[in-house]
Amino acid sequence: xPTGYTSKIKDGISxxxxxxxxxxxxxxxxxxxNEPWDAPIPDxxxxxxxxxxxxxxxxxxxxxxKAMSLDDAERAxxxxxxxxxxxxxxxxxxxxxLKAKYLDMLSRVRAWEPPTPKHHEFKEFMVDQIRRSIEIxxxxxxxxxxxxxxxxxxxxxxxxxxxxxHNIEYHTKENTEEVERAKSRTEWxxxxxxxxxxxxx
Length: 201
Prior knowledge:
- By secondary structure, the protein is mainly α.
- α3 runs antiparallel to α4.
């Protein structure tokens, strides 16, 4: 049975076409994973601008934080504490609601009479799936045990400046690596294409 790479051989594709088709499965073409098989491979891979955008956002946020008054920081610290406390409460409620739904379904599965002895294993499978889901999805101990730290405005401001500064460093490093990856992928594809060009006498 032909694979996605070999299926066109029966149609008489050239060696060069086959090589370029196979190149789509290599790391150099990783950014094309969700494109159609017949999409042309570019001669140059451009780096993603994701990290550049994140750097710009973080720099704007850092400027905003550094310009913030202590009174504004106090209000922001209070709002942050309140929002985190509410988020934890909401998450615990979501888990409890989900557990109630799982337990309701579990009771229905347990009450169900399998139509044949061959269906008993299927019933046990369903019970096991629900039990596992309860264990994984409904353990709220992390949230129940989590203490939300109430910070002063100055503490909150320092923590936020440190967090945003870290984000700038992180995205700067990641952007440098992304640029290098794009350059490396481009060089790989160009070298492959040169190897397929007729050699000059």
